[in-house]
Amino acid sequence: MIIDTHAHIDVEDFEKDREAVIKRAREAGVKYILNIGCDIESSYRSMELAEQYDFIYATAGIHPHDVKSIDNDTYSHLRQLLTHPKVVALGEIGLDYFKNYSPPELQRTHFRNQIQLARDMNKPIIIHSRDAKEDIISILSEFFPTNPTAHSGIFHCFSGDQELADAALDMGFYISFPAQ
Ligand SMILES: [Zn+2]
Ligand SMILES: [Zn+2]
Questions:
Q1: Distance 45 CA to ligand 1 centre (A)
Q2: What CATH number is given to the structural domain containing 74?
Q3: CA-to-CA distance for 174 and 163, rounded, in angstroms?
């Protein structure tokens, strides 16, 4: 069974042919699609897609690039979104020190806050990690034991090394590799 675990078909690029793209994916054998939120707006759009199509599920979360846009209402929106039966994970969240579109300190704060929210709500997390191996491992290890009894989430678009892969697998994460 093919499941696309990381789609962004809510974005504007698909405004003209979203329905056709979704149809083609289904015809090619994609059974389920998980559409990923990157900020509050895209998380709501993902939820709406999940309401529209029974084979689409959604996540809600604030991407490390976008944590600078977090305001007083953000966490209550996330909490609300995560109560939706088809919003199945929190993400994508993480650290991106390659681009540093948001200050690293702020990225770490909101990575921790969002992991805590996911733990509180018993949801897996979708991790975006770029050039941030040491901080990713140390922050995750504050929350995830090694050899957990449940799956912790997934590292999407994995670009780390053996050490990060070992740490991720030990803490119960899947890792995914992009096709070029
Ligand atoms: Zn993504
Ligand atoms: Zn990403």
A1: 14
A2: 3.20.20.140
A3: 14
